[in-house]
Design goal:
Helix 1 runs antiparallel to helix 2, helix 8 packs parallel to helix 9 and helix 13 runs parallel beside helix 14. The termini are far apart. The chain is α/β, with parallel strands linked by helices and about 550 residues long. The radius of gyration is 33 Å and the shape is globular. Helix content is about 30%, strand content about 20%. The protein has a 15-stranded parallel beta sheet that branches. Strands 1-7-6 form a three-stranded antiparallel beta sheet, with no helix packed on it. Strands 2-3 form a two-stranded antiparallel ribbon.
């Protein structure tokens, strides 16, 4: 297909065009003479075509317009660049064109042009109006024609599919599986910047083509540019007809160069565990770039997914490992952690189904851990009198139930200086009362910057909430109470949990700030009045109640 020379006559009514003899072929500027019928807006547009400065006219003269089925901002930087490309870059670089206002001379084309109306001579705002009348499927097809139409149809296509691409979404973007096909169009936009975080929701009607589109997007972005990937689902993923493709999908994400991978399933999993047949773990450390891995579903420890899970843990140089809501028994936890060694680990999260003795033996092999979180379970007690291991940890944050936090603190060789100590009280912790149990943990610390107490969901007796009259010698700066898990019943004033816990503040004489949140039978102002009676005048108070 050779090049051809064509001439397209332009309109002559309303204007006269004259080229100065001094103009050379290298100059694109022309003198334009208008008659009285040419409006000022038309004069500016035509002059902009002759001088190559249409982006300035768009930026200063054109106002935002309401477009059918979509609202487009014509004044944002992306639109300015779009119009500049439409009038200047595209016509000059891709068509090698010498322009008069509405005529084209000596056009070197790369495809035969037999029509008398060349679409590229239309102002970009007209092309936007035309594309805005199309449906989402047609917009996607138009966006695949060329770079110019992709820049025009892309924003309209994204808006039609509710796909967020605004500058505030550049750090993280949320996308569900039906929108995975949009990623191939988005990555080719001039304004595309790889997000640092992607939150992806997998739908029950997940298809293999959608997974392929997402993987193609990951392979197309610069390596390691997407640092955090989170996957959510709320269906029986083991019953999916594309289960092998889902496993391949997870393995490709693990190898994509991301630093943090979170897999979180909300579907209630009932089935056998793959930990049962575990004898030892194999893996080549450092074959991927993962630094944090979170598994928050029992599905990931099923026989089908367990090889992926254990390979991810063993082949990564993990700094953070979070295993929560995975429904393993204490025997399975003991078997899993017995064979697991992660040298660079500094943060660990496990379920309270993991026995304190198992947890402490694991901590003894990982002396760099400074953050430990145990997800509490509704009930259950553990025997801790046989724990003899001694720990040397730079611990700075502890979060969990007393049944696990207190044995860990007792096993430390030196008193820790904690920036945060979060305690989840259970019904069996009232021995003899809740505050005495709390003080046992606090007194095993050098100091506590922030003490957070999650009140028990049910209170069986008012005596369990009394203040025994003791004081803590440990300095606590910020004390917080949370009753968000309280069973909401019509409690009388005397049984209001937040009101009863206010007297606990007296046990911490050095506290400078007190926070309360959750459910209460009292108004926020009444709680403030109760707290003011037992604290110094310079203590800062904050009360936030749920409806």
């Amino acid at each position: 297909m050779g090049n051809s020379i064509s001439h397209i006559s332009g309109r002559q009514s309303g204007m006269n065009v004259s080229t100065s003899p001094q103009d050379t072929p290298q100059s694109s500027k022309r003198n334009i003479e208008f008659d009285d019928s040419a409006s000022p807006r038309k004069r500016r547009l035509l002059e902009s075509y002759s001088t190559g400065d249409i982006h300035q006219v768009i930026a200063t003269q054109l106002q935002p317009s309401n477009i059918y089925r979509c609202h487009t901002d014509f004044t944002n930087p992306v639109a300015k660049r779009l119009y500049r490309e439409a009038s200047d870059v595209f016509l000059k670089r891709k068509a090698d064109t010498q322009l008069d206002p509405f005529s084209m001379k000596r056009v070197k084309l790369y495809e035969p042009c037999n029509t008398t109306a060349f679409i590229w001579s239309l102002p970009a705002e007209i092309l936007v109006l035309i594309v805005a009348l199309l449906g989402a499927r047609d917009m996607r097809c138009v966006a695949q024609v060329c770079s110019l139409l992709r820049e025009i149809a892309g924003p309209l296509f994204f808006s039609n599919r509710n796909f967020p691409t605004s500058p505030k979404d550049l750090f993280h973007i949320r996308v569900d599986s039906p929108s995975f096909d949009i990623l191939s169009t988005w990555i080719r936009m001039d304004a595309f910047r790889p997000p640092r975080m992607m939150l992806c929701w997998l739908n029950p009607d997940l298809r293999a083509s959608q997974l392929s589109a997402f993987l193609h997007f990951l392979q197309s972005v610069p390596h390691k540019s997407i640092q955090y990937i989170t996957l959510f689902w709320n269906f029986d993923i083991l019953a999916s007809p594309i289960l092998p493709q889902i496993l391949t999908f997870l393995e490709n994400i693990r190898a994509s160069g991301c630093e943090e991978l979170t897999c979180m399933g909300f579907y209630h999993f009932v089935g056998s565990s793959g930990v049962t047949r575990l004898t030892r773990m194999h893996g080549h450390m450092g074959v991927n770039h993962l630094k944090a891995f979170e598994a928050s579903s029992g599905v990931l420890f099923s026989p089908e997914f367990f090889p992926f899970t254990i390979q991810t843990i063993c082949s990564s140089n993990l700094e953070k490992l979070r295993l929560s809501y995975i429904k393993l028994s204490s025997a399975h936890w003991e078997k899993l952690l017995r064979y697991l060694t992660i040298l660079a680990l500094v943060e660990l999260r496990v379920d309270a189904d993991c026995a304190p003795s198992t947890l402490i033996r694991f901590l003894a092999r990982h002396p760099a851990i400074h953050t430990l979180c145990i997800v509490p379970r509704p009930c259950g007690t553990w025997r801790t009198n046989r724990i003899t291991a001694r720990l040397t940890l730079p611990i700075s944050k502890l979060d969990g139930p007393l049944s696990h936090i207190l044995p860990v603190l007792r096993s430390l060789r030196t008193l820790p200086t904690l920036t945060c100590l979060a305690l989840s009280l259970q019904a069996h912790d009232a021995s003899p009362d809740y505050l005495s149990s709390v003080l046992q943990c606090v007194d095993r610390c050098e100091s506590v910057e922030y003490l957070f107490i999650s009140l028990p969901s049910q209170i069986h007796s008012r005596s369990a909430m009394i203040w025994p009259g003791t004081h803590s010698a440990v300095r606590v700066k910020h004390l917080a109470f949370d009753s968000s898990d309280i069973v909401r019943t019509s409690l009388p004033f005397a049984e209001d949990t937040l009101a009863l816990s206010a007297q606990w503040i007296q046990a911490f004489p050095d506290v400078k700030r007190v926070s309360m949140r959750g459910y209460s039978a009292l108004a926020a102002g009444d709680l403030v009045d109760i707290v003011r009676k037992v604290v110094a005048a310079d203590v800062e108070l904050s009360v936030t109640l749920h409806n």
